[in-house]
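If your schedule permits, I should be very grateful for your opinion on a structural question. Please examine both parts with care and let me know of anything in them that strikes you as inconsistent. The record follows directly beneath this note:
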Amino acid sequence: MKASVVRSVSAGALALVCAVPALAETVIGVTRPFRDATLSAAVPGAVVEVTVKPGAAVKKGDVLVRLDSRLEELEVARRRQQAESQVEIEAAKARVATLKTDLDGTRRLFETTQSVSKDDLDKKELEFRLAEAELSQLAVAEERERIECEMAEAQLEKRAVRAPFDGIVTRVEIEEGEVCGPERPLLRLVDVTSVYFTASLDARLTPGLSLGQELAVRVENDGDPLGRVGTVEFISPVVDAASGLQDIRVRFANPDGRVRPGLSATVELGATPQ
């Protein structure tokens, strides 16, 4: 009887323990832009136009800075004129067609009436083959000119710094008349339509996380905390040996732009997102 009571109490205690929910773990981190780019010119040159100011909203492909491109424009015009000129190749095609007709007529005469000599036939065939070879060389030259024209156009395109994505210009560090090179930052562009929560947390907590998992994010916003629901997009496969910390990244939508990257934020691990 006594043993039976002990077993009953143990089972009840176990049920009570299982009924207690696991405590949520608060992870502190910071918000960062979904995309953040420091833009430079691909080639050195003098700046002739800066089309934006800090705070400007731009679309992908918009020109933000123009470099002096007069020489490149002239080179493109020259190459394009050469590439588009068909005078030589059309003349060569006409010559090949004429010599082919002449060769065919000479061959028929040689084979039927013997009114032309074999030497005359060989001479006609040689002229035709040489004309074909010339046409082939012109076709190769035409393709080379087309490629060189595209290369000149690519060099001209490098004289413009374009937005790689839709975003907001946060810094402009160049003025018209200045000379810049590939190593000099010109602008900073960010996309905050989505925001990342990033943190380094105790590696013992990450086994409870999975990619695609939803987490509640609380962003400190000058006394007006903002609640968001984000999705785990990255869990570092590496644990820092010195600290025992592991990086995670959670992405959440920011369509109204209220969450400003750089603000402190927290994530509750083990809590159900609301």
Summary: The chain is about 35% helix and 30% strand. The radius of gyration is 37 Å. The first strand starts at residue 25 and ends at 39.
